[in-house]
Amino acid sequence: MDDTTIICSKEDETRWMLTRLDDLMSWCRMDFKPKKSRSLSIRRGKVDEAFTVVEQQIPTVSQEPVKSLGRWYDLSMKDIRRGAETLELASESLLVINKCGLQGKFKIWCPQFMLIPQLLWPLLDNDICSSTVETIEAQINKFVLLIYKKMVGGSSGSFRRGNVLSKSKAKTPNEIYPRGV
Predict the structure, then answer these.
(1) Please, which domain of life does this record's source organism belong to (predicted)?
(2) What are the residue boundaries of the structural domains of the chain, listed by start?
(3) Which of 13, 48, 102, 147 would staple 106 via disulfide (CB 3.0–4.6 Å)?
């Protein structure tokens, strides 16, 4: 038994369930670790009651937040902080990618195949506003463009559509398939 979640509508039911689980655990010769557990009891919109197991108090979510399936639960029960944390994670990850000793083409590969999948879970799981998502997207785009400029070599003025395509080794679709043919 790794993780167990108990959801009860009444305090008495919760206490009975914890007592019963404690009996079963002692029968199996296993112990609860109350310090690794968390409790959340909300009564009239406020955190109310703390519970005990094996005569040790279970910390409440307000005292120590808990992470379950990639999602953090704390007293506020809101996802506002999760947006800022995801934005910070994206910024720190881009700095780490930039400082690593990889070649430019691999640095461009990292955000697409490593960073974005890592960011997708918190973005999908939490209710993060679209402006934060757009900020993360802009940071990643700016990073990729910066690395691309370093690889190709040139100023920002030379990276307009025509200049980049004319200097690139690959031919554009218009060069391969000209109109009128």
Answers:
(1) Eukaryota
(2) 11-73, 80-175
(3) 102
Q: Could you report the per-residue pLDDT of 124-181, keeping only the tens digit for each?
A: 888 888 899 999 999 999 999 998 888 887 655 555 444 443 444 455 556 666 766 5
32-38 long-range CB contacts below 8 Å, 24 or more apart? 34/58, 34/59, 35/59, 38/64, 38/65, 38/66, 38/73
Tell me if 107 sits within 8 A of 115, measured CB to CB.
Answer: no
For residues 42 and 83, give the distance between their C-alpha atoms in angstroms, rounded to a whole number. 25
Whole-number Å distance between alpha carbons of 114 and 140:
12
* Count of Cβ atoms closer than 10 Å to residue 41 Cβ: 15
C-alpha distance from residue 123 to each of 91, 118, 129, 141 (Å): 15, 9, 9, 17
What type of residue sits at position 108? I
Give dist(CA 92, CA 140) in Å, integer. Answer: 11
Q: Which helix (H) or strand (E) holds 72?
A: strand 71-73
